[in-house]
Amino acid sequence: MTTHINAKMGDYADTVLLPGDPLRAKYIAENFLEDVVQVNEVRGALGFTGTYKGKRVSVQGSGMGIPSMSIYINELVSAFGVKTIMRVGSFGAMADSIQLGDVVLASAASTDSAVIAQTFGPGIYWSATPDFELLDTAYHTAEQLNIPVKVGNIFAADRFYNDELDMDKLKDYGVIGTEMEAAGLYLLAAKLKFRSLDILTASDHIYRDEALSAKERETSFKDMMEVALETSLKF
């Protein structure tokens, strides 16, 4: 048991899927896993463990943003021995080629968060990247499932509402979309030595004023979940 997780050692599987929304964690557990047991409910951050095609998998809600997510990652890895974390969330698309519902694998994560500067100090540019074996496996797993995926640099924003951020410049430099967690996930993975990957679904498009409805989000996110769960079978 930790400050934010009231589980016991062994309650979490080696692989954890990490949506931001605790209710999405509940949805994933109820619709994709078998023999599900709830292992956490502290502060409403729901956590579950079950099986997918016979393999134990856990899913844990982490809240929004790097600070909230970092609490759960630190405790999952340090206290419960988790070895692989795949974030499964939504993002705002920026690239013209991305359509609503597209699945994206974050091969790098830029950010305006202070976490990297606070870790390395001024004058050092540190690039946040996922575990390559996990990324490569997810990409080829999606191919086998006939689920198109795109791979690219995701911007992990420190603020959801930020009129001062120059999105045009980020887009010009090849950033394909924005969310609020990827850079923190990859930074902690480098520090704590676990496998990490950010798998995302485009829920809206920043430049085209498009957004999925609640029903469309529920349906389209199934592709992302299938990629993540099928990838988990190989680790």
Structural account:
The chain has seven helices and ten strands. The model has no long low-confidence stretch (mean pLDDT 95). It has one domain (15-232): Nucleoside phosphorylase domain (Rossmann fold). Helix 2 (66-80) runs parallel beside helix 6 and helix 4 (132-144) crosses helix 7. The protein has a five-stranded mixed beta barrel. Strand 2 (34-40) and strand 3 (47-52) form a beta hairpin. The relative contact order is 0.20. By secondary structure, it is of the alpha/beta class. 34% of the residues lie in helices and 29% in strands.
Task: Write a compact overview of the structure shown.
With 235 residues, the chain is an alpha/beta fold. The protein has helices spanning 22-32, 66-80, 115-120, 132-144, 167-172, 182-192, 214-232; strands spanning 15-18, 34-40, 47-52, 55-60, 84-93, 103-111, 149-156, 175-179, 195-205, 210-211.
Question: How are the SSEs placed, and which strands pair?
Answer:
Elements (H helix, E strand, L loop, with lengths): L14 E4 L3 H11 L1 E7 L6 E6 L2 E6 L5 H15 L3 E10 L9 E9 L3 H6 L11 H13 L4 E8 L10 H6 L2 E5 L2 H11 L2 E11 L4 E2 L2 H19 L3
Parallel strand pairs: 1-4, 1-5, 5-9, 6-7, 7-8
Antiparallel strand pairs: 2-3, 3-4, 5-8, 6-9, 9-10
Helix pairs in contact: 2-6, 4-7
